[in-house]
Each structure stands twice: as C-alpha cells, then as structure tokens.
Amino acid sequence: MGGESLQPPRGTRDFYPEDLRRRDWLFAHFRDTARLYAFEEIDAPILEHAELFTRKAGEEIVEQLYHFELHDRHLALRPEMTPSVARMVMARAGGLRLPLRWFTVTQNWRYERMTRGRLREHYQWNMDIWGEPGVAAEAELIGAIFTLLDRTGLPRGAVRIRVNSRALLEESLRRGILARRPEAFAPLCVVIDKIGKIGADAVIDQLADPAGAVGLARAEAADVVAMLDARTLDDAARLGGEGSLALADLRRLFELIDSTGRGGDLVFDASVVRGLAYYTGVVFEAFDARGVLRAVCGGGRYDRLLETLGGRALPAVGFGFGDVVIMELLADHGLLPDLRRTIDEVIFPLGEAQRPAALALTGRLRTAGHSVQTVLGTPRLKKVLTDAAADGARRVWILGPDELTRGVATVRDLQSGEQREEPLVS
Ligand code: HAM
Known about the structure:
Blueprint: H1 17-36, E1 40-41, E2 47-49, H2 60-63, E3 67-70, E4 73-77, H3 82-91, E5 100-109, E6 121-130, H4 136-151, E7 159-165, H5 166-175, H6 185-192, H7 195-198, H8 200-207, H9 218-227, H10 233-240, H11 245-259, E8 266-268, E9 282-288, E10 297-301, H12 305-308, E11 316-322, H13 324-332, E12 343-349, H14 355-367, E13 372-374, H15 381-390, E14 393-399, H16 401-406, E15 408-413, E16 419-423
Parallel strand pairs: 1-5, 7-8, 12-13, 12-14
Antiparallel strand pairs: 2-4, 3-4, 5-6, 6-11, 7-9, 9-10, 10-11, 14-15, 15-16
Helix pairs in contact: 1-4, 4-11, 8-9, 10-11
The structure holds histidyl-adenosine monophosphate.
Residues 80, 82, 110, 112, 118-119, 122, 124, 126, 128, 276, 295-300, 318-322, 324-325 line the site of histidyl-adenosine monophosphate (HAM).
C-alpha cells in the first residue's frame, strides 16, 4: 500500500481539527438559522436504493451517482437529500401536520468533473416546506438564505438571488411547442440549464436532436432559447401573458421579499431553470455578485415529486445550500473566522504519586462543566506551560508533593501570568 491509496479519494476531504472547527461554525449557523425559522431537523441513511435517484430525464446528477451492487441490492450514496426527504414524507403521509418545515445537514456524493467550488463530496444544508402551495413558503425559504448570509458576515449585496418560474415557461410551451408532449418539459429544462456551461448553440443542438428526449424543430429550439433572455417581470409578462398564474406568483414573491427589506437582492432571470427534473414552479439560485464562483445555493418548488415516487401529490418547496462555495466566498472576502482551540484547565501532576489527587480534581472540574486536559506522562513544567498556551488553556493546575501535603494546588493563569494557591477541597 502506498501512493494514491494513502490520499483521500480525489474530490473528497479529510477534516483536521482546525477544518472541523470551521465546518462546525458553519453548521451551527445553518442550524441556528433553521431554528430561527422554526424548522425541525431530520436525518436519513447516506445509502439508499439506487432506484430512488435514477430518474430518466438526462440529469447530470444521475450520471454522477456513486452506486454499487451488494447481495443483489443496487445501492447508491445520496447525491442530494430531496428524494430521501420525499421518501420520509411519503412513509408518513396522512399522519403529518402540514405545512411541514424540515431541515437537514448532510454529506452528499456526486462524481463531478471537478472545478472550483465543486467536489465529489459536499455537505448541504436543506430547508424544505411541504404542504404549502403559495409563495409565502418561497418567501420564508429565501428569507432564511438571506439570514444565513448575514450571519456569516458577508456584506449585503455580495450574494444575490436569481429567481424564475418553470411554470411560466411551461405555460407558454404547453400552449405551443409542447402542446402534445408535456412529458418533454422536464428533459427540456435539464438541457437549457446547461446554457451557461455549453452556450446557446449547443443547447439548440441538443433540444433539436432527433434522437434526444426533447426533439424540437430547430426553429422551435431557437424560440425556447430566446425566451431565456427575459430579465424583468415585464419582459416575462410578454412570455406568459398578463393572465399567467406563474407571473402572478412571481410578482407576489417579489412583493413579499420587498416587505422584508431585501427586494434589492432578488433579481428575475428567465435563464435560471435549474438542472433537476423534479422542479415544477418557482426556482432560484443564490450567486456570488462578483460573478466569480458557482451557485452558492439553489432550490425551487417540486409539487409533483411525491407522485413520481408513487405517492399522492403534495406541494413542496426547498433549497440546498452547500458548504464548499460559501467557504470559498468567505475566504475571498477575508471573512473566514479564525477559530482557536480552547480548553479551560490543564491539570499537571508533577509525579505519578500525585496522579490520584490530580484525577480526583479533574473529575470535580469536569462535573462542574469545565473542559479539562490531564497531562499524560511526566514532561517538564516548561513544556506543559508551552503546550497549554498553544492549546488555548486558561489555567494550569500544578500538583507537586509540597502542594499535596498542604492540600492545595498552584494555579497559573496563562493570560495574566499570575500564580496563586487553590485549596483541593473534595
Ligand atoms: P443542487 O443545485 O444540485 O440542488 O445543489 C444545491 C447546492 O449544493 C449547490 O448550490 C451547491 O451549493 C451545493 N453543491 C451541489 N453539488 C456540489 C458539489 N459537487 N460540490 C460542492 N457543492 C455542491 C439540490 O441538490 C436540490 N436537492 C436542492 C433542493 C432541496 N431543492 C429542493 N429542496
């Protein structure tokens, strides 16, 4: 064994203590924000039946699945959390009090082509609302994203949210191009989601590929791509027509976000359709306003996912917010927190004879809630003091034979350098 096998697999990370302190800091903000919005945390296995994830709309996420067969079972590491949450909702359908607000913080696996901000495992904070068809749910979720961003210290405007509605596009296509083939809509969205990556011409090629799932005529494909240029709700009105329900929803959503004072950070963008097949309505993505990094988070409404899994339809909307891009963004803004290790007390028995008394003291302090490190072995006092300072300890308790006969310990405060005696009361 050696070489590559001693490295973590490409695109995966080891977390050393300093890395984990940062990750915990971010996760604490995820969880605290979810609590502020009164969401409850759930969890599910990292491994699921592969079938839960293998949809047939040509999504990248399905091609990137880490999957294997074991004892005749086809299993996969979850690439995202939404199907597992849907499975859990479905298992208790009827018994759940709606609307339901659930969140998760989980590791997900995708065999990605790696670029900045995209790894092969990442953690995602998901917030989902089930059972609410109105855009008040979207407003709540978008509010939570802004709250999280504020908490990290990012200045307002550093991240904006682009919003669109697949329903708007679907309404106009169903009246025309897709009138007789509504099933082509999901694969069509999957293709046009790639426009930023592969360009308009390649998207038109794929939409017009006679062997593809969409199969439009070339002129129709070009018309679809032209619809993605709308950047204001008034442009969108021309697409959907004034009677459009999807447009009314978008207008209401902007109004609601305006009332929270964040209207300036929400922008309409018809080119945002998202790459997952299950979205049906409003879709959104938070992005780095400098245009440097990939999406900070993304989500949308998926009112038909339960049906596709064989359950009864239930409106749902949510987002996934990864740990990788936000950390890159915070680093670019010089906002990564410098989190030091801290412990309260270091207990140093000068010799093995003083260890029982040291252990008794350690126990008392831990019971009182202090974090206590007992010095192992019998290093020199100088090393103990240097190590204690490097570990972020506040005090060092020195227990020597003299101290013990007098029933005390010498306590050194590492910040002030002062030293005093403390009784070793039991
Ligand atoms: P997604 O857009 O595929 O959506 O992922 C959501 C977020 O997860 C991305 O915006 C990004 O922050 C992060 N992410 C995804 N893939 C990677 C990767 N390879 N490396 C680093 N970060 C990544 C979903 O997964 C949906 N299930 C979200 C959702 C929840 N929609 C409704 N509810």
